[in-house]
Amino acid sequence: xxxxxxxxxxxxxxxxxxxxxxxxxxxxxxxxxxxxxxxxxxxxxxxxxxxxxxxxxxxxxxxxxxxxxxxxxxxxxxxxxxxxxxxxxxxxxxxxxxxxxxxxxxxxxxxxxxxxxxxxxxxxxxxxxxxxxxxxxxxxxxxxxxxxxxxxxxxxxxxxxxxxxxxxxxxxxxxxxxxxxxxxxxxxxxxxxxxxxxxxx
Length: 201
Description:
By secondary structure, this protein is mainly alpha-helical. It has a domain at 63-200: Alpha Horseshoe (Serine Threonine Protein Phosphatase 5, Tetratricopeptide repeat). The protein has helices at residues 79-82, 84-95, 99-112, 117-130, 134-149, 168-183, 187-200, and strands spanning 63-68, 71-75.
């Protein structure tokens, strides 16, 4: 289940136990097709401009709304809620000690919602923490970062506080991307993103 605020749980804070709504079929089991890849093809980290701004043909599916003076919040696609059970299942499998099966479950969730920031962050965390693959992790973190970056106007007159639940996966992705860039020797890009993080939060 999602928290009372209606948003999925933070991937860096897996649930304490199994769901109470009964067992769910595992990826690859009866009635479910095991995904063949990570969904929308995660992209590498930023090099120069990340992508087109709002108004372009590739406008991000992530929205932005002002909730108070100078305070903004991300608006996520409806499919985030629709695939939450699959996302939570992936976290539970990871917590149970099976990172390979957890990755399959999260990839399955990504098939139903390719622009789910929480799932991309979880897959990035898996790649970095379990498989020690910063370049693969960079792809997932970078894709999530790019989705939000395309949403933010260049003259944004406020902040995107991390303590607001809808904004949290963006900052998790940004911090993960910074860690990956540092790990592969791209310190200059990591420093630029660190400045952006400090400006927005």
